[in-house]
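User: Okay, second chain of the day. Same drill as before: sequence in, structure tokens out.
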Amino acid sequence: MHPNPLFHGDDRSAIEAMIAQIGVGTVFLQTPAGPRAARTPLVMGGQNRIHFHLAKANALFDHLDGASTLVTVDGPGGYVSPRWYANRDTVPTWNYVAVEAVGTVRRMADDELETFLHRLIALQEDRLGADRWSADEASETVWQRLFTGIAGFELAVEEYRPTIKLSQDKPAPVRAAIAAGLESAGNRDLAAAMRELPA
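Assistant: Same drill. Structure tokens below.
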């Protein structure tokens, strides 16, 4: 989390909407073998609840249930060049949107995992549009082989720590110039996030 309070946000519904939209994050945990991280799909499981799954062979698997855990989600981000400022007597920086979610993890029962997987598939297939794939297309043999190799988890979020660093410390004309520069450099998502930020 960025130390400048100007870059913090407290709109919980916006934070959870961002997590749902991005749909993937990184789970971090201190294990007896040292710190470990795993990238995993995320689904909001209700207010202050994040659902995810991992392979049982993952180094985190044996240590997550009941553990205090950190999950991070990265939104758009990118390099900000001084070339985009009228006064170039400055230094580069990096704009980005990110959320840290801290809480306690609970392992899901198999029926919860089944529900979560069907929901995850439906959400992602809906984003792709027509010709949706359905889990029913997988044979029972294939589904069960893969199902028994994973475990589902729920993070009960105790604290969200968002960073929304989009040049809020700069005057509006400078922010507009940075957004235009980012867009011309191909970083349309970050430029859009800057333009959507209230003035």
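The beta strands are 24-31, 34-44, 49-55, 68-80, 93-107, 150-165.

User: Thanks, on to the next one.
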